[in-house]
Every structure is written in C-alpha cells, then in structure tokens.
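=== RUN LOG ===
request id: a7f3
mode: sequence -> structure
chains: 1
length: 407
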Amino acid sequence: MKKKPEKLHMANKKASIIVLVVAALIFAAAVFLIYSQDFLNGIEEHFTANVGGLLEFERGTVLEILSEDMKPDEAAEGHLRGNQKLSVVIRTGRYKGEVMTANNYFGAITGVPLEVGDGVIFTVKTHDDGSHIATVYEFDRLPTLAVCLVLFFAVIFLVGGRTGVKSLIGLIFTAACLFVILIPLLIKGAPTVLTTFLVCAYIAVVSFTVLGGVHRKTVSAFLGTMAGVLLALLFALAAQHFAKIDGYRLDTAEELLQMRYYESPLRIRGLLAAGVIISALGAVMDVAMSISSSLEEVHAANPAMTGRELFRSGMNIGHDMAGTMTNTLILAFLGCEFSFIIFFYAQGLTFRRLVTTPFVGIEAISSLASSVGMILAIPLTALIASVLIAGKSRKGKNDVRKKKAKR
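=== RESULT ===
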C-alpha cells in the first residue's frame, strides 16, 4: 500500500519537471523572437529624441543647494512651490562623475524640494555643439521602493514559509511574463485580446505547477481559473459592445494613439478587454485554488464521499468566498480611481450624466466582468475538482476490487 502513493508522488514530480522545462523553453523562445529585432521597431526614438540635441535620463546626487526660492501654496494645503539651483554629481551615463549645476522646479503636483544627499533622476540635454545642461526630473524613489519590496518578501517568507517562497517565485515569473513578453508583443502588433489570454493561461500553468506541482487539485484550479477568466472576458466584450466603448476611451488612449501615428502596430481597441483578463486572473486563481484545495482536504478526511457530495461541499465553501471576494475586488477597483470619483462627484453631475461618462463605463465593465468571472469560477472549479477527485477515487477502488477478485 505504501508503494502506490510513492509511485504517484514520483509521477507527479516528473510531470511537474516536464511542465516547467517546457515552460522555460517557451519563455526562452518567446524572448528570442521578440528581441531578435529592434525592441519597439524604432518607435522609442520618437519619444527619446529631442529637437536640437540629445535628451538622456541619468541618476545623480545633490551636493549643495546654491540658491532657492519657495513658498507655501495655500490652495494646495501648504505644499511648497518654487525652484532651487543645485550643485549635483552625475552617477551614470556618459557624464558619470561630472559635477553640474541643475535647476529644480517644483509645486504641489510636480516635483519636490530637495536636500543635500538626496538621490535624483536628471534629464541631461546635450546640444549639437557638445554643451550640456542638467534639470531635475524627479526624486529617485527606487531605493525606498526596493526597501518596501524587501520587507514584502520578508513578510511572505516569515509567514508563508516554503509556500511563501513558491508564491514569490510565481510573482516574479508573472511580472517577467507581463513586462518581458506580453507588453512587447502587444507593442509589436500582436492580437491584443488573444495574446493577453494566452499569456495569462501560460502564467497560470506555471504558477500552479510551482505552487503545487502537477496534481489533481492544481489541474482543477487551472481549468477553473481559465474557465472563469474566459467568462469574464466574454462578459467584458459583450458589455463594451453594447455600451459602445473600447480601449480608445481609456485615459492613456491619446498617448498610445501617438504611437500609431509613428507607425506602431499596437492595437488599442482591445486594451480594455485585455485589462479585464489581467485584473481577473489574480482573483480567479485565488478562488479556484482555494476551492480545489479545500475539496482535496475534504476528500482526504472522508474518502467515501461521492462526486455530488464533494460538489455540494465546494459550493458551500464558495458561497462564503463569493461575498467577501466580490466586495474586495470592486473596492480595489474603486480605490485605484478614488480621486477621479471625487472629482466627478464634485462636479454636481446628475446620475445619468455620471454613468454616461466613459470613465464610469470603463470602471463598471472592468469591475463587474472580473467579479462575474470570479463568481462563476466557484461552481466550475467545484464541478471539475469533484469529478477529478471522486473519479480517481472510484478508479482506485475498482482496482482494489479487481485485485481481490483475482485472488
């Protein structure tokens, strides 16, 4: 009786290794194909070049404040506005080690007053005659964000242990897929919705394999996740069709449209639906894994349960999750756009005028589509998990009966 679980464990381990190796090969092939040509097909030159010279972004440090003129802005809750003349040293690029004089202009919504020792990002403009001038672009927040990230990793490791480490690996992999594969593919003109869905499916496969290996609960979670995300996508596509709204009504559509004027093949129309896929993926993965893992534990505690009983247990678990997760998901969307909500509310718009704005339409479609996908993932995952778990259990019992009959 002990050999069978050991053989099953080894089979799952081998399958997990195969999946991860294939995933790594796919990642390497995608990176090679994407970066074998110019990264943005030369589009980036239109955004970095500067008439009459070259504009570069470099890191540096404030050595001395030569002069400053600033005063509080009463309309902006006392925020300082004004300018500073600084002596700075450039830390990167062609002018590394050179001491320059840089101007810092700041106000309530642009820039901040600087102090000696502050790390800064500068724009260094080099003119055709070789002369150059530095201007403060922004305070360098990378060190602070790096510390926050380290603390985040530490909390996950201390609380989550080995599982926490696996989740960090999945997080890093997800970020790599989005920034190294998905975004470059979309900029190169790949079909927006289809590409986003396939990349998210790829992320889900690898994340579940890293987290739990190739196991019936992870297979159930993956199938439930993709079913939920697909339904969220279909809901979003139908909603944006009837609401007559698409990616061209997003806040950044004007900037993205400029890229198309520079012959970028980026397909903007599908970006709204693509955003729904990405935002729904995390919540749906969480729900699907929770349901499938719970059913696995329930079956382990009572192996005699039938598939119907397991499905009923999964639905009971999912009922409690649906209320809290939906509330969390919608509040997360609203929280990200809270300032816009305040702005529109302050305009004194009627309810009809408010809900007719593209902003409300986009946020409503994104929030509702993601919530629909998450809620529908509960019965789908419960059904898939109950079939796989109970089906495997029946198969094992039948094998035992056959062996006894032979004896």
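=== NOTES ===
Residues 75 and 213 are 57 Å apart (CA to CA).
The longest strand covers residues 53-73.
=== END ===
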